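Feature request, filed as a ticket because there's no other form

It would be nice if the structure record came with a short human-readable summary line next to the tokens. Right now we just get the raw output. Example of a typical job, pasted below so the devs can see what we mean:
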Amino acid sequence: MTFLIRTIDITASGREIQRERRTEASRLTVGRAAENDIHLPDLAVEQRHVSIEARGDGTVAVAALGTLGFGLDGRIVTEEVIDPSTGGEIALGAARLAVTREADGTIAVTIRQIAQEEGKGDALRGFALASVLPSKRAMSWVFASAILLMLLMVPVASHLLRSPAKPDPTGKTPGAVLLDSAWTSGELSLKHHSLEQNCESCHVNAFESVTDETCLSCHKGTGDHAAKSRLAKGMPELSPGDAIQWRIGETFGKEGPLGCVSCHSEHEGPVRQKAGDEAFCGNCHTKLDTRLTDTSLANAHDFGKAHPQFRPLYFASFGAAKPVRAAPGSKPVERSGLKFPHDVHMNPRGGAARMAVSLSQYGKPLDCKDCHVLTGDRIAFKEVKMEDACEGCHSLVSGRTAAGGFTKLRHGDVKHLAEDLARISAKGNGGPRPALAPGRQRPGQIGSASPYRADFGRPVRAYIGISRALSVGGVCTECHLPTTGPTGQADLMPVNLPDRFLSSGYFNHEAHKQEKCSDCHAAGTSKAASDLLIPDLKSCRTCHLGAAAVKTRKIVPSDCAMCHAYHVPSGQWQEKGPAPHYRPPPKPLVMKPAAAKVAKARM
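Raw output as currently delivered:
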């Protein structure tokens, strides 16, 4: 089958140029792609728009090849059949393809481009709404003016005419700016969602960024990471591009890269504020010592590769007023004032275990949780009290009452102990504890000859005087270290134990409840109370690696924010509520009042 393709072009002078070519094919493709039989360089035409196929009965089938249809004699269709004897005109963009039959029977496709002005005088336009409306440009100016008036002039005027606003944490500032909600760049975060309808709560001055003063009017307890001068000196130098951007931002009231809004972006949707990622912390801490040459902090970046060894708090001397941080690489020796061998109490076959099995409150060998109980926030541990954790085995019973009950020595105050012992002596209840067997000593780990022996009978030995009870071998020195007071009287070392060992980090024991305490704390092999049983960096890295680590059943990717908070006081500890927040600094546990006086006299 032969098609005659005729192209008609009009020159700038109005002269018509006609070109013809013949194609031996039964089917033609038309489109914007150059490989088509008829190429139409028009953006309104698809790459392969339509096909024109000659049929055996002398007609021509036209079908759309893409997603768009085509015009045929004023109608939009996707496929149609044309009788070349009658003729038909296909509209594709600005091109018109007339399909006709020549005198010799050849099917001719004549292509011409229509002028843009062509059809403007169509009679149907007289019935269109556009004929009575202003031009599109005029309409655009009208709407732009209305938007400018409603969303700029009205809010600016209401801002200038209202009473000056102050930072308002309640979100009830009077004289709110009108129509300012149309300017919002997005929804507020979950914490600030209640301020959604009151922009003046944060945006005090028009066309100025939110200031630190405004933020701190609500967040009064939020401290800086460090002094601003130290932060400025410790942060890496800005790149030229960043420096230019910050200079521009500062002209609009932005308070530099150390301001609140440089990290806390708002209008990001109803989400929680994300903690800074590992790169955020590493920007300064990777080579911190090169900028802060006087810092005591070691460089840190990735927990799995570049993190200093832990430096826990501990009391380095007996009766010290405050705990100190361990020196880098040192092995701290804790001076708590106690004698407590963990290995004796944790041995499942030892004497302590046999004693615990015989007592109804335990009924089994001792475990860590028998003495160490989590606080309500499920993060730290409660103070271990002798009456709750120790007295079941280390009896304080001193005698019987007339009603058949028992009397006990009061624990925790040497003065009370002296009064109780004096009362026993006055009643004649003294006397030695009965021997286990004539001429024999109790064998084994906690036997009479052992340094860890415990006498589970009445706590009154062959003597009742206070000096005897507090001296070596006395009832009190089974757990406490004896000392001498300022006037030479017998006394006990004060008990000092910090309630937080890692002062700069956050550790959640509740999150590790599936693990055994002995997996991290070597209590089973500790023979003295001076052992500081804080796990080292290596033990944590068995599970916790850097933020880029691949998560598995054992490996947990761990970024800086998992254990550290940016603001100091840290936002990690809080006694109330599920979210961890700031917790007050640790207070040492001390013997009172006599023992404290002894410590003060020694210092």
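Something like this underneath would help us a lot:
Confidence is low (pLDDT under 50) at residues 429-437, 454-458, 572-603.
The radius of gyration is 44 Å.
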